[in-house]
Structure formats: structure tokens, C-alpha cells
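A reminder before we start the practical. When you read a complex entry, don't treat the lines as separate problems. The point of joint prediction is that each chain is placed relative to the others, so the output describes one connected object in space. Small molecules and nucleic acid strands, if listed, are placed in the same frame. In the example below there are two entries. Take a minute to note the order of the lines before looking further.
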Amino acid sequence: MRFVDEYRDPAAARALVARITELAGDGHYKFMEVCGGHTHTIYRHGIEHLLPTSVELVHGPGCPVCVIPMGRIDDAISVAQAPGVIFTSFGDMMRVPGSRGSLLGAKAQGADVRIVYSPLDALRVAVDNPEQPVVFFAVGFETTSPSTAATVLKARQDGVMNFSVFSNHVTIVPPIKAILDSPDLRLDGFIGPGHVSTVVGQRPYRFVPDEYGKPLVTAGFEPLDILQAIQMLLTQISEGRCCVENQYTRCVSEGGNPRALAILDEVFEVRPQFEWRGLGFIPESALKLRPEFANWDAELRFEVPGVRVADPKACQCGEVLKGAIKPWECKVFGTACTPETPIGTCMVSSEGACAAYYNFGRLHREVAVTMGGPR
Amino acid sequence: MCLGIPGEVVDLLDSNRHLAKVDVAGVRRNINIDLLEDENVVPGDWVLIHVGFAMAKIDEEEARRALEGLQLMGQAYSDEVQAVLESQIA
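Here is the predicted structure of the whole assembly.
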């Protein structure tokens, strides 16, 4: 238990691991987390080392940076290179490769690309530069999309007409459904996302037990939260129960944040379909601005090529995002593809499974190899 | 990018613009509290901040635990705090 002493309450962690080991018994259980923050915690704190071999964690498409397909990056660069445009983006997106380089590359070639912390900072850039169109590259699950929506409402309220949003917001339920429908992955349950659930609440996940017969436990971001969620999943299974449970009651309520959901609904509508890196097109899985906000919709104001680009052949981000392979089983992991020179999205964000493995998971790889690799 | 950082509300500024002043890691910055409009945020409350918006009210104990957890993240945490500090929401 090399890592456990770093935990806030090592004794509680040891007790949880003992209980998990007991509950899992001789079985083999595969649980998927769908939250980049969880993936980061799991590697940072070596949770996979603590768990018995009877419990396997699979890292799903929970990092919004990782699920953006190459074609959308190309579109973003195309908008950024339009005459006079100031293009604003979260820092995480700058190094994500498209088919012809990244936003960072476009900036080096002269495009005015600026990193912002908040969509409100992007709006401020627009106010400060009234003669230039200012575009915000909006990415993220329901954690982030209400903030974009509130910013668009503010732009309308303040009459900031030179501001627009290139929306790549995605929603959490459709990819979970896509993974449950995928034939090549047998899962025994889900660790539900933390911050996304502060917005959406618990109700949207009920289809997981009701229609697919799998338990889901929403969890916080401390290592102890993850361990407790695993214990709650195994307890449900051992008692023959199957439902949505909430380990993260400190932040997540049953109904989520109704105001955030209302603002989201006022500004955005669901796209008929959207391409996800590695998962292909998923129906009704992303958001675009409603027609009444056309003035603030970058896709209507600029030429967006919208060309679908296949992932690089060597890159196996798709299999990693579906949990079909571990990051280090990808042929280019840590060799041609590193956080400094990423080929795939999973290596870019610190919340991506590959970057997390690369930074913290070296030991795990050695352990897994000695044990004959993952099953 | 999905990190939430705890901050303590120290002042409510312009209610029309949903602005509040928060203390984040010892430094004061403005954030937007529009998403918590129904929750009657007052000075002394702790909130979870994500991309310049308060997204949830949390209690002080959760704020302390979240901060400890974030500090363990090292670089990712200091990058996020740096980003908050560079933000100029008004």
C-alpha cells in the first residue's frame, strides 16, 4: 500500500480496500469512470495499485478535450484564420492536433489566438475590441456549458454583437448509452461524474439501472471518494440491488442545479448528431445555439469547412476512450505520442487517460506486465 | 479543464451583473454567481468555481477537503489557480 499514507485518512482507505476485496471475492468486476477528474485522481493516487485484481477500472470518454474529433479542430483553426478574428480558447485545447496542426501552430503562423480562463474573459476581449469579431471555442460537458450559456445571455443583454461562440459542448448521457450499447465491452457498473452531476443531478442516469441493469454511483474527487464509490457498487451487486446512488452528496443533489439547466435550455438546443473522437457519430449528444441566438453562433457567422477527418492510423484514442485497451497498449504510447508532442487527444489534457498514465502510471505498467497484463 | 476550485465569497458586487468577490487561495477575484441565483449566496459562503462561475454552494469542510485534494494534484492545481488569478471578470 505504497500510496495510502498520502491519503487524508489512511486508516479509512485501508478499511475500504479490505471491504472491497471481501465483497469482490473470487469474481471479476469492471467499472468505468466517465470523468476526467476521476481518471486523474485514480492515477495520481495509484488507486489501481490498492485495488485487488478482482476489481478493474476502465477509463471512459469523460474528458471533453479528448472527445473532440480532428475535423472540429480544423474548423476552429479555419475560423481563427478568418480576417480580423480574435479566437479565444481554454489553454487545454491549444495543443490538440487537427489534421493540419494545432491552434498553437496557427498562432505561431500569425492567427490571433488567445488563451482565456473563462468565457467571460472572452466576452471582455470582445468589449475591448469592438471592431474585431471575437470567437470563443466552447468545449465541455454540462459542467461548463451553463457558463457559456450565461455568457451568451450576457452578450445579448449588453449588446456585444462582435462576440460569438463556436459550440462543441457535449452531453454526458449519450456516450454512456453508446458504451452500454457497444458489444465489445462488458461492464459491471459506472462511477458517475462529479461536477457534471452538480448540474444535471442524478435523475438522468436512471436509465443505466432501469434499461441496462447496471449500477451507477456518483463520486467525488478524493481518493477516498473513489474507493467508497467502488465499495457502494460492489455492495449493490452483492445485495442483488441495482440503482443510482450518490456518494458525493456534499456537492450533488437529486435534481442538480435547476437554474443552470434552465439557462442551458434557453440558449442551446440538441444537435441531431455529433462526432466523438473514437466513438463515431452519437445521436443527440451535443449542443448548438438556438436560432434566436444566431448572431452569437460562430458556425453561422463564419465559413466552417465541416470536413470529417479520420483519426491518424497509428492513434488508438478510440479504443482507449471506450476502455477497450489500456493507454500503454497503444502502439505509439510514450514513443511517438507524448504530452509534449501528442498524436491523440488522450495525451493532451492532464485529465486524459494517456497523459495521466504517462505522468503517474509508469509503475502500474511494470506491475501489469509482471502480472501478465490486464485481462 | 474540469477542475472546480473552492472560494469564499467576501462581497456581493453588482447584483444586476451577478458579480461577487471571492477569496481564492488568499487572493481576491471577481466571479459570476448567476448560476446560483436561486441559492441566496451571501458573504461567508463557500462556492465551487469553474471557468469563472460559481457552480455549487459547498460547506466549509468540503471546501477544505477539496483544496487539500487539489493541492495534491500539483501542477494541474497551480495552473488552474494561476488561470483564475489572470482572469479579469467584470
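Discuss with your neighbour: The two ends of chain A are 22 Å apart (CA to CA). What might explain this?
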